[in-house]
Amino acid sequence: MPIIKVENLSKIFGRKPQEAIGLLEEGYSKEDILEKTGNTVGVNRATFDVEEGEVFVIMGLSGSGKSTLVRLLNRLIEPTEGSVLIDDQDLATMDKEGLRKVRREKMSMVFQNFGLFPYRTVLENTVYGLEIQGMDKEKSKEKAIQALELVGLGGYIEQYPSQLSGGMQQRVGLARALANDPEVLLMDEAFSALDPLIRKGMQDELLDLQERMQKTIIFITHDLDEALRIGDRIALMKDGSIVQIGTPEEILVNPANDYVEKFVEDVDRSKVLTAENIMKRPETVSIEKHGPRVALERMREEGLSSIYVTDKQRNLKGYVTADDASDARKNDVKDLSQILKNDVPTVNLDTSMTEIFDIIQDTAVPVAVVEDGKLRGVIVRGAVIAALAGSEVNIDVG
Amino acid sequence: MLDNIPTLPVAEIVDTITDWIEETFSFIFDPIKDDFGPFLDDLSGDYLAAIPPWIVILIVAVLAFFVSGKKFGLAIFSIIGLWFIQNQGQWEQLMYTFVLVIAASIIAIIIGVPIGILMSKSKTLQSILTPILDFMQTMPAFVYLIPTVAFFSIGMPPGVFAALIFATPPTIRLTNLGIRQVPNELIEASEAFGSTPMQKLIKVELPMAKKTIMAGINQTVMLTLSMVVIASMIGAPGLGREVMRALQRADVGSGFVAGIGIVILAIIIDRFTQYLNKQKGE
Ligand SMILES: Nc1ncnc2c1ncn2[C@@H]1O[C@H](COP(=O)(O)OP(=O)(O)O)[C@@H](O)[C@H]1O
Ligand SMILES: [Mg+2]
């Protein structure tokens, strides 16, 4: 069940928002509308659902409307049109009191530059969200310390933010957001201000936390690598519109248009693509039906030096080489099982490219992709190299 | 040709308005005249002036020592400066001036900070108030001394009032500025966690703006001090009156002595407020 449902959500900055909305509906671009009306399109009719427990990444270049969109989700920015349903309540039309309740109980936000209060200690910062709810001092302190321990800052509670490194400051930001025990975390470029090494560590930690706490996370980034690493699904934005929503693989393998493709071009594919994306339909012979003669024939047709052998249920039995098959035919052996070889290099559907690359170095036969013992596809060395080089990927799966 | 147009009765109109204000608001002016004025006079002349000067000097020196972070500079300056004033027979005058300055400053803060807060929340209010504040600070003080006397008669109250008009604007301005300068991300953070506007003001905006507001208050206090000579024209007692008297008699020596007294008081008050600001900001 989706925890957040966004429908037709738009934000126009400027004096004549309704006029701009009309033009949007007529199909005018952000640029045209700026020229015609002087209004800036922040977000253009975004529609999407976020599932409970999901890491939903919103990605796009600077100025594409990410920050605006995420602020529409907790109404730090008033929407011009559309609705944001949280647990089936419409945030866009809620009164102030109701809105505060949602902000206090259901969602917290983590900011790009941490948004910490410099005159408050780490503990006082973390307790902020509970303090304003009027929670009992002892109880809120306890909760804040728990949250700080969760992010590994239990020993720093009396320090001031300025005494901490950037990575640690953002942990405080994260702890402050977690202290409320919200359902949804909104993170606007939360790691973008950190240097790359620390950033990776924080990404891992976030995934770790997410696994343990099962929060729904809406994560904004302009960095595709980051999006691919942490996103369960990614929404790509351009000029205020969402141009594609999909899993990391869908985005990489099937870019919806040139814009996405361009975005995706320089990504390090070895990290994201898996066996499933680069395998092709296997040529096989059946252990029950076929003998060495058929096997040899097939190999000759397809120009192979070996072929996989399965049973009727497509369970992988092994492979035979062309040499063995031809010997067997000469010696009048009828049964494939006598020449069957079992040293099959196998991988799973979701084995990463990097691992496949290592395996394929040491083997003469194609790598078999196996699911529950059944042969799903084969990977030849050429496909791995082509995928790493970023050219067309073959995804027809048998 | 221009002579044919009769003189516009501006002066008469202003007079009428002043009279009207005086009568209509006499329920405000009268208690100030009758109670607040004597209170300030008693406070300076009877109570503060009755404390032996050496005790006052000692207290100021000790406070100076601690306020300045246990350094001797300000303490030593206070001792020498205050002793000099006492030595010159200006001690009672100093008490009157001190009370005038403190009373005007406190009222200026009580009025100025809330107005500054309101101003920071409303663009409209800001654009209305800005020219008024400019006007208050640039209009020659002599112009409003006259109606001030009409409202409050002479003595301390009109002095305080004149000082207020001149000295409140910096507190208003810098409170407004300080709140507007709070980084947007911190405002968003406080709102995103569900703060009410009041919680946002007290827990985020005021603490963040504190340094700027304190700088405004410091300016306000200094401007109040600069008004003491002018305020003495409408009967406010104190060091200013000594300067004024010396001026009327072309008595260079006494004028200089009283002037030095004002400077010493100014330096001590200025350093005190600055140190307080620094300490609180840490
Ligand atoms: N307060 C604002 N007033 C006017 N235009 C704005 C405002 N905030 C953002 N915009 C405009 O909206 C667009 C989207 O901005 P933003 O959401 O900050 O993008 P991103 O976070 O993807 O960099 C930009 O064209 C930006 O200039
Ligand atoms: Mg942004």
Automatic annotation (TrEMBL), chain A:
One of its GO terms (cellular component) is plasma membrane. GO terms for molecular function: ABC-type quaternary ammonium compound transporting activity; ATP binding; ATP hydrolysis activity. Residues 278-336, 339-397 form the CBS domain. Its EC number is 7.6.2.9. It is found in: Cell inner membrane. It is a peripheral membrane protein. One of its GO terms (biological process) is response to osmotic stress. Keywords: Amino-acid transport, ATP-binding, CBS domain, Cell inner membrane, Cell membrane, Membrane, Nucleotide-binding, Transport. InterPro entries: AAA+_ATPase (IPR003593), ABC_osmolyte_uptake_ATP-bind (IPR051921), ABC_transporter-like_ATP-bd (IPR003439), ABC_transporter-like_CS (IPR017871), CBS_dom (IPR000644), CBS_dom_sf (IPR046342), Gly-betaine_transp_ATP-bd (IPR005892), P-loop_NTPase (IPR027417). Its main location: membrane. It catalyses: a quaternary ammonium(out) + ATP + H2O = a quaternary ammonium(in) + ADP + phosphate + H(+). It is an enzyme of class 7 (translocase). Residues 28-264 form the ABC transporter domain. Gene3D superfamilies: CBS-domain, P-loop containing nucleotide triphosphate hydrolases. NCBIfam families: proV. The complex is probably composed of two ATP-binding proteins, two transmembrane proteins and a solute-binding protein. PANTHER family: GLYCINE BETAINE/PROLINE BETAINE TRANSPORT SYSTEM ATP-BINDING PROTEIN PROV, GLYCINE BETAINE_PROLINE BETAINE TRANSPORT SYSTEM ATP-BINDING PROTEIN PROV. Belongs to the ABC transporter superfamily. This is Quaternary amine transport ATP-binding protein. It comes from Salinibacillus kushneri.
UniProtKB/TrEMBL annotation, chain B:
GO terms for cellular component: ATP-binding cassette (ABC) transporter complex. Its main location: membrane. Pfam families: BPD_transp_1. One of its GO terms (biological process) is choline transport. It is a multi-pass membrane protein. This is Glycine betaine/proline transport system permease protein/glycine betaine/proline transport system substrate-binding protein. It comes from the Bacteria. Belongs to the binding-protein-dependent transport system permease family. CysTW subfamily.
